[in-house]
Amino acid sequence: MKLDVLLGLQWGDEGKGKIVDVLASRYNVIARFQGGPNAGHSLEFNDIKHVLHTIPSGVFRPDTINIIGNGVVMDPVIFMDEINELREMNVDITKNLYISKRAHLILPSHRVMDAALEASKGKTKIGSTLKGIGPTYMDKIGRTGLRVGDIINSGFEEKYQHLTQKHKDTISQYNYNFDIDEYEKKWFEGIELIKSFKLIESEHEINKYLEEEKLILAEGAQGTLLDIDFGSYPFVTSSNTICAGACTGLGIAPNKIGNVVGIFKAYCTRVGSGPFPTELEDNDGETLRKQGHEFGATTGRPRRCGWLDLPALKYAVMLNGVTELVITKADVLTGFEKIKVCTHYILNEKQIDYMPYEINEPLTPIYKEFNGWSQDISKITSYEELPIEFKDYIKYIESQVNVPIKVISVGPDRDETILL
Ligand code: GDP
Ligand code: IMO
Ligand code: MG
Ligand 1 pocket: which residues have CB below 6 Å? Predict the structure, then answer.
């Protein structure tokens, strides 16, 4: 048995949470493999709207096992808040949420370091969600981090104090005021809560499930263009968001990857700083933001909006080995007289059709224009009923990236989904 991977092909917020929730009924296990509470994955069904940060999006399906893999970084405070919110909704997942002992912990001082580092960058700031993601992965790679498995061993508090002191010494160079006492208290409460969950070695657990023919979906966070290696560095997150991240973030071999489901919005958004060749700073951009409610699920920041970028999408399809596509937020394009798609860029007076290393240099997009449609498509349930203009739009995308679109999302609700 092989494991399927679902991930974002743009700059995050493609609708991964919604689609994982839709597909979760087909799987026995949903596993997060990277990122942390910088993610905000929204789910909507039966008039419930919910945002998950650390917890996998299979959590509302009672028979699904959810795994937080070794590649994830966890903030015990945010995790505790998430669990409490779920309990208020009568969703208790103590029995079907497992956490890898190898997952790294975000310390209160990691959050402060994130904020101090960003503040020191001035105009070159990344626009981090300030959840401590970068500093936690720095400690992981620097071999100084604390892991979930450490919390059940003696000497944990000592290790915590030692690392926190190291961070305080670093922060003192930044002239940055902070007070972590309150947060620290809650942090240790969160640590106790984590102890009440089944702590696993995800590599053994997941490979055992595969042998037992269980169906597993790995849920990505962020998006391909935020990948630490292939994204618009340095305006990226600190993990491998691409499909390969599922191997290292869960402990599965590359030949165990089955379908790779790539999600993209019918247009593009980005939150935080960094290059965005098709960004619209005009009325069309404003309309996309309004119609698409494009405000961050984690930070509430307005998302930057622009037209679909094909060279970027092709790049993402290549890096991930995408086998099927999901297009989301198609309904948001309703009402546009003309819809544009970027097919090429001009870089240093030359036309190119790929995402270059020089992504941080000015790239001028070249567009192909499509006719829009005015009909509300959010209640449509079959492909046949969709407006011809929309069909032309997606047929063109499929022909350019050479991967079939298997799901069309026309609204935020679980039911507003057309499966092809
Ligand atoms: P994620 O991080 O990839 O899970 O995406 P987010 O949850 O951060 O952002 C996607 C937003 O779009 C959420 O508010 C979703 O409820 C919403 N959404 C998802 N799919 C659709 C869709 O097809 N149409 C509309 N209008 N909204 C959608
Ligand atoms: P989901 O999983 C959109 C962006 C931040 C910032 C950069 C680095 O909901 O798609 P970090 O906090 O990782 O140091 O921020 O990455 N970013 C996201 N943008 N969706 C996300 O997650 C994101 N997670 C991080 O805005 O530009
Ligand atoms: Mg999000």
Answer: 8, 12-18, 39-42, 44, 292-293, 297, 328-329, 331-332, 409-412
- Non-local CB neighbours of 326 within 8 Å, separated by 6+ positions: 15, 19, 261, 262, 263, 264, 405, 406, 407, 408, 409
What are the tens digits of pLDDT across the range 312-363?
Answer: 999 999 999 999 999 999 999 999 999 999 999 999 999 999 999 999 999 9
Read off the pTM.
0.97
User: How many CB atoms are located within 10 Å of the residue 382 CB?
Assistant: 9
DSSP state letter for 207: H
Residues near 255 by Cβ (< 8 Å), separated by ≥ 6?
Answer: none
Q: Measure the CA–CA gap between 14 and 317, rounded to whole angstroms.
A: 14
Q: Which two tokens stand for residue 83?
A: 């669990």
Cα(12) to ligand 2 centroid in Å equals 7
Structure-token pair, residue 171: 């922060």
Residue 203, CB-side half-sphere exposure with 13 Å CA sphere = 12
Nearest to 104, CA basis, from 73, 82, 129? 73
With CA atoms as reference, report the closest residue to 303 among 89, 10, 7, 2: 10
Which residue is associated with the tokens 């087909």?
A: 26
Q: What does the H/E/C string look like for 245-294?
A: HHHHHHCCCHHHEEEEEEEEECCEEECCCCCCCCECCCHHHHHHHHHCCC
Choosing from 34, 219, 299, 329 the residue with most ligand 1 atoms within 8 A of its CB, the one to mutate for a pocket test is: 329
CA distance 18 to 24: 10
Of the residues 13, 309, 331, 413, which is catalytic?
13
Which residue CA neighbors atom 14 of ligand 1 most closely?
42
Neighbours of ion ligand 3 (CB under 5 A): 13, 40, 297
